[in-house]
## 1
Amino acid sequence: MSLGITALGSGSGGNSFVVHSADGNILIDAGFSRKELIRRMLEVNVDPSSIQAVLLSHEHDDHLKGCRIFCDQFKIPLYVSFETLQYLKKKKEHKLPKNICEFTTGSEIPLLGMSIWPFTVQHDAIDTVGFEISCEDKKIGFASDLGVINNLVKRHLRDCDILVLESNYDLDMLRRSDRQIHLKKRIAGINGHLNNTDAIGALSDLLTERTKVLMLVHASSECNDYELVRTLAREQLEKMQRNDIIMKVIEQNRTLETIILDKLI
Ligand SMILES: [Zn+2]
Ligand SMILES: [Zn+2]
C-alpha cells in the first residue's frame, strides 16, 4: 500500500489526520479528546491500534488536546520538536505522554518507511511546523496553521501527490465579524492564519501534474464558509484546467474516508 490520508476533522475545535503507509499509520496532530479520536477513526474504518506514532505540528490545543492520553493508551510515541518540547515541559498544565521522540525542525524523521521533513511555518506558536512526507515516489505536503506562504513553504508544498493546506478565513467575513480588533489583527497577521485568497491563489504555484488530491483545511467557523471555499477552489481548478484533482474541504465535524494514492485511477 502506498501513501494515503484520512481526515478526522479540521478547524479551531480540533485537528487530526491519519497518514497511511505500507508499514503502518501515524497521526498528524491529535486535537480531539481520546474518545472523540477513536470514535472518528472507527467511523472511517481506521483501527486506532494501527496508529504507530503521533506527530505534533504545534502546541495549540486544537492540535495537542488528545495527544497525551491517546499516546499513553496505545503506548506509542509523540513526535514533537525540540523547542516545543522545552516549552511544554515548563508548562505544568501540559502533561506529556510517557513516550516522547524529539525532532529537529528542518531535519528528516525516518519513520515506518516514510521520510518526514518538518519545516518551519510562520504562526503564533513556539515552533510551528508543516510536514513534507515522502514514501518511494509519492509525496504529501501538509500545512494547517500558517500566516503566510513564503519560499520555504512553497519549496516543501510544491509538487505533491496530496496537498493539505489551510484556508482559514474570508477577509470580508473577518472584518465584519464581532471579534475584537486585536484578535482580527492576530488572525490576519503573518503569524496568524491563511485566508482563502492567499491559499487558493497559491495553488497555481503549488499544484503540478502529479497532484491528485487537494484538501483545504482549518476553515474558521465564524469567518469562513465551507461552500465558499469549495466554490473558490473549484473556480481556481477550472481556471487551471485541473478538474481531475480530487478537491475536499475538510470540515470540523465530518470525517472523510481514507484516500490511498495507489487506488486512485
Ligand atoms: Zn495554531
Ligand atoms: Zn489550529
Note: The radius of gyration is 17 Å.
## 2
Amino acid sequence: MTLPTRPLGQTELRLTELGFGAASLGNLNRRIDDATGRAAIDDAIAAGIRFVDTAPFYGRGLSERRVGDALREADRGVVLSTKVGRLLTPDASATAQEARDGFLSPMPFRVEYDYSRDGILRAFEASLHRLGLDRIDMVFVHDIGRKVLGDAHDRHWAELTTGGGFAALESLRDQGAIAAFGLGVNEVEVCLDAIRVAPVDVLLLANRYTLLEQTPLDELFPLCAQRQVSVVAGAPYNSGILATGTRGGGAPFYDYGPAPDAVVARVRRIEAVADDWQVPLAAAALQFPLAHPCVASVLPGIGDPRRLAQTLDLYRHPIPEGFWQALVAEGLLRSDAPVPTTRDEAVRA
Ligand SMILES: NC(=O)c1ccc[n+]([C@@H]2O[C@H](COP(=O)([O-])OP(=O)(O)OC[C@H]3O[C@@H](n4cnc5c(N)ncnc54)[C@H](OP(=O)(O)O)[C@@H]3O)[C@@H](O)[C@H]2O)c1
C-alpha cells in the first residue's frame, strides 16, 4: 500500500503526497529514543509513506543514523533525501547533554559550512556512510541564504556557483548517483536565485507556503511551473503554531522560536474560522499546500508513532470547501491560492 504519489519535476521519481520529516529524529526540541524513532518510520512505511527527508545537521548525524538503520532493513521503495553544505567534524568539547541549534543530545560533531565542489562531494560520501546505505535519491543544498548565513552568504553562494558546488550535484545526477537535487531552505529569495543559475529539480521550501503565508505565489511558483521544478512544502505548521494552535498554554512556536504577537493574533483569527467550520487547524495546515500544482509533497515533522497516526488522520480529515472561502473572505488566505477540493479527499480516502 502507498499513499497517492506525484511526479517530481522532470525526473523519474514520484513522491507520496505526505512525507516524513526526520529533523524530529535528531531530537529537535525533544528527545526521542531509538526504538520510538524506529517505530515511527516503520509505521509510516506500513501506512504508505514513501518519502523520508533527513540531514547531517539534524542532531549532527543522529537523524541520518536512525533513518539509515530503518531503511537498510529492507528495500521498501522509499525516496530518501538528505542535504549537503555542512560537514561534520569531531568535537571532543561537545557534551551529550548540550542542546545545539535546538537539537537535544546531538552527536559529538561540529558543523562547518562548505558549499564548494569538494565540500559537497565530501558531504555526500559522509552521508552515505552515516546512513549505511548505497543510495540517496535526492540531495538538497541546505540552508544557503542570507537568513541563515548572514554576510557569509555571498561567499558560500560563490562556492556553489563559480566554486563548482552546483556542478558537482549535476554530475552526481548525470552519473546516476542521485536522481534529483535542489535546495532545502526557509527563504524564497535564494530559491529564485538558484532556479535562474542551476538546473534544479526540486525545492524543499520550509515554512514559507503555509496557511499563514503564501508569498511563493507571487514569483517563485510561477517560475517553478515554467521550469518544471517541483516544490516540497516543508514545515507546514510553521514549526509548531499551526499544529498546536494558540490555546494550549505556553508560547507557541513559529519558525523555531516563540511566535511574535502579530503571528499569534493572525492564528487566533484563523482558529475562529476553523471553529465555525469545525475544522481542526492542523488538518487545514497540512492539506493546504498540497492544493498547489507545483507542490509534490507536504513534509511535516514526525517523531513518534502517536504523532504519525495523528498526522495520517489530519491528512485525511474532510474539510468543507466553504471553510477555505471563509478564510479568503476574512482576508486570512490569498484569493489566488489554490485550495483543496472534495475530489482530493476522495483520492486519499
Ligand atoms: N532548510 C530545510 O531544508 C528545512 C527546514 C525546516 C524543515 N525542513 C524539513 O521539514 C520537516 C518538518 O519541519 P518541522 O518539523 O521543523 O516543522 P513542522 O512540521 O511545521 O512542525 C513540527 C512541530 O509541530 C508539532 N506538531 C506536529 N504535529 C502536531 C500535532 N498533530 N499536534 C500538536 N503538535 C504537532 C511538533 O511537535 P512534536 O515534536 O511534539 O511532534 C513539532 O514541534 C523537517 O523534519 C525537515 O525534514 C527542512
Note: The chain has one domain: 5-348.
## 3
Amino acid sequence: MSPPHGSERDDEVPGPRGGPAHTHESEHARDPRSGVLRAAVFGAPDGLVSNLALVMGVAGGSGDASVVVLAGVAGLLAGAFSMAAGEYISMQTQREMLERELEVERKHIEDHPEAEQRHLAELLAENGIDEEDASRVAAQAHERTDRALEFHAQLELGIQPSSLGAPGAAALSSFGAFALGAAVPLLPWLVTRDALLATMLVSGLALLWVGAAATRFTQRSARYGAVRQLLVGALSAAVTFGVGSLISRL
Ligand SMILES: [Zn+2]
C-alpha cells in the first residue's frame, strides 16, 4: 500500500510579491514564537505515537487495565519531560551560540569602528541602497554601538539581537503538546477496562488529524501527511503489541 503522492493543494502562483514574501517568512523562522509553534506541531504526533506504542505494548502483554493506565501515565510524563528538556537545551544552546557571534561582532565594531562602518556601507550598497545613502545610514547606525550591532547582525549574520528565541516557552509548549498527544491512547482505558479497540480507533483518527495538520507547514497534501502519520503510528503500535504478546507467553 503506497500513500498518495503529489500535492492536492494548488501550488501558489509566484506573483510579483513572491520574493519579498519569502524573505519575510525566513525572518519569521527566527521569530521566537515559531519555536513555540514548531514545538507544538511536532510534539503532539510524538506523544501520540510514543504513548500509543507503549500502551499497546503493555496491553499486548497484560490483560490488566490498571497496569496499562500506570504505564500510560508514566509514559506520558516521562516523554513530556524528555521533550521539554531536549527543546530547552537545544534552543538555549543555539541562543548561546548566537550570543557568542554577537559578542565577536560587537568587539569588531568597538575595536575597528571606521572599518566596520565602511563595511556596513558596502553591505547596504550590496543590498541595493545607493552609495551616498548607504554611507549616511552607516554613519547614523554607528553613532551607537548597539544600533550598529543590530545592522551588522542582520546583514552579516541574519539574526536580530532582540529575538534569539524563547527556550522556556518552547519547552513548555513541547511539554503540553506531547502530553496532549500522549493522552489520546490513554483516555479509553480510564473509561473501560476493555479499551483495546477504542484505543486503536481514537488513536487512528488522531494520527490522521495530526498528520494532516503538520502538512500546513509543508508542500505536501493533507491526505499524504495523514496517511503517512497513520502508517508510522500503526506500525509502531503493531510491533510493540506483538512484542508485548510474545513476552507474556514466555
Ligand atoms: Zn561587521
Note: The chain has one domain: 39-249.
## 4
Amino acid sequence: MKTAWRSDRLVYSFCTRADLPAIAAMLAKTAVCEWLFFGPNPPEVTHAYFEPLIDGMAEAQAGGTAPESYVFTVRTRPSGGTGKGREGAFIGQCALVADDFSEGAYLIGYQTDDAQWGKGYGTEMCRFLVWFAFTMAGAYRLNGDCAAGNIPSVKIMEGCGFVPEGRQRKYWHVRGGYHDRLLYGLLAEDLPAGPAPWQELFS
Ligand SMILES: CC(C)(COP(=O)(O)OP(=O)(O)OC[C@H]1O[C@@H](n2cnc3c(N)ncnc32)[C@H](O)[C@@H]1OP(=O)(O)O)[C@@H](O)C(=O)NCCC(=O)NCCS
C-alpha cells in the first residue's frame, strides 16, 4: 500500500511514531500555537493525541484497508534523491480526521514549523489535503475552521476554495481577549468538473 506522496519539493508520508518528537517539538512552541485552539502542548499531550491516529493507520495498513483518519508528516524532498526517503527537513504535519458521525466527512488540520512560514508550504499542504481527500479518501465534505485572527489560515482555506459557512462570535477567550471562530466547508460538488484540483502537483 502506498504511504507517501510527493510534490516537486515536499514528501507527505503516513505519520509514524518516529515522527512524533518533531511534531511534539513544533506543537510545544508558543508561536506555532498562537492561533490554535490548543497548546502549547507538553510532548506527552501531543503523543497522546496522535498515537491512536498513527496506530489506526498502521493497523489499517497491515490489514490492507483504508485508514479511518490520515495524518501526514511533511518533509522536504531529500536533495538529489527520489523523494521516497524520510531524510528531508521537517516542515510540519497535516491531517484529515474522520468525522465521528458522518462517513466521508473529514476535519482538515495543518501546521508548518515556524522556521518554515511564508514559503508557500501551508498553501501546498492544504491543496494536498483537498486533492487527497477527494481522490484517495472518498470524501464528500471537508470541514475547516480557524480563529478569525489567523490571517494565513484564512487565506489558505479561501484560496483552496473552501466556502465560508459561519462565524461563531467570541468563541475563544484567551490572552485577555475574545476571538471569533470562522467555519468553512468544501463539498465534492464545489470542485470544478474534471480532474481533482492540483492533481498535477502530487504523485
Ligand atoms: C497557518 C500556517 C499553516 C501558514 O503556513 P505558511 O507555510 O506560512 O503558509 P503560506 O506560506 O502558504 O502562506 C499562506 C498565505 O498567508 C500569507 N501569510 C503568511 N504569513 C503571514 C502573516 N504572518 N501575516 C499575514 N499573511 C501571512 C502568505 O502571504 C500567503 O498569502 P497569499 O495566499 O496571499 O500568498 C502556519 O503559519 C502555521 O502552521 N501556523 C501555526 C498553526 C496554525 O495556525 N495552523 C492552522 C490552524 S487553522
Note: The radius of gyration is 16 Å.
